Amino acid sequence: MQMKRKIIISFSLLLILVFNSSILIAESQPNEIKRFAVLFYDESDAYISLVKEALQEIQQLNPDKVEFIYYDAANNQGIQNQQLEEVLRNNIDGILVNIVDYNSSEPIVNRAKENNIPIIFFNREPSTLDSIKSYGKSIFIGTSGCQSGNMQGEMIVNQLQKNLVQDRNQNNQLDYVLLKGPRNNKEAIERSRCVIEQINNSGIRTKELYSEFMNWDREITKERLTPILSRIVTDLDVIISNNDQMAIGAIEVLQQYGYNLPGGRNYIPVFGIDAIPEAIDLINTGIMEGTVLQDAKSMAEAMYITSMNFAEGKRPLAGTDFEFDSTGVALRIPYPDYIVRPST
């Protein structure tokens, strides 16, 4: 009987030890380093490079909490699909996808769902959010294209009111060139529509001299704009671009025709979006007129917080002041401000 009591007591002690060990393990889980795969559509994109720098800074500040593993698809959806399969074979806690093809979100979400891995799409919004809505561990983090368009329009109106943008041919309207992102991109569509609406709603008449889809790309802009500019430059009041890369491409074309040169007299205002360092330098030297600030650090911070929440079994927006938009799955990072050429 005494032996039996000893066995029972020993077993009870063992259970207590196992239970306490389980508690210690459970309590240590949140402190384990979480590993997230970051799939970029193209690291050569100037804004994406800023997001990567911001993520690297977050990891440096939190070395005992997070590790980001980066993949560059070089603007090729096939490569990104292969990278996704590689990621799924590794022991990771979540996936962050900057999608190449806006129409390819469904199979990507399905693969994450099959493996029960949280997946966050960021920056490049899929053509539909339906697949993201279908999986409780998936969200989109981006911006509002219309907000950036409105801010760009407000910036142009303000520069007009200061006589820093002028009616060069005195026809009582703003004659413009509009450089757009990809044809089916939601952000590009909204930026293009809302910037012109904002200008018109301010009581300013506008006339489009030329508009083209330039796919966010500086070199494409130079190639397509060069043969056009000579025919319209005398009537042109302003160039409006959906992003800074295309704006800089337009400036390089203008410089071929003797405009927007350092210290030069001939100048046509060029406006962009993103506030990449090169654009800010051009603004400060008086070669570019202005840009809307897209906050890469805030984007990276939202990616980090929501990824960690998912990995720790929490709701993605837990412990934050963030709110989803009307879709219930999209978090929109606001554009904080714009930057303009110093007045002389």
Automatic annotation (TrEMBL):
In terms of CDD domains, this protein maps to: PBP1_GGBP
Localization: Cell envelope
Superkingdom of source: Bacteria
Q: Which residues form the Periplasmic binding protein domain?
A: 36-314
Q: Which InterPro entries match?
A: Bact_Solute-Bind_Prot2, MglB-like_PBP1, Peripla_BP_I, SBP_2_dom
Any one GO molecular-function label of the UniProt entry: carbohydrate binding
Entry keywords, A to Z? Calcium, Metal-binding, Periplasm, Signal, Sugar transport, Transport
- UniProt keyword annotation of Transport present: yes
What is a single cellular component term in the Gene Ontology annotation? Answer: outer membrane-bounded periplasmic space
Spell out the subunit comment: The ABC transporter complex is composed of one ATP-binding protein (MglA), two transmembrane proteins (MglC) and a solute-binding protein (MglB).
Q: In its UniProt entry, what is this protein called?
A: D-galactose/methyl-galactoside binding periplasmic protein MglB
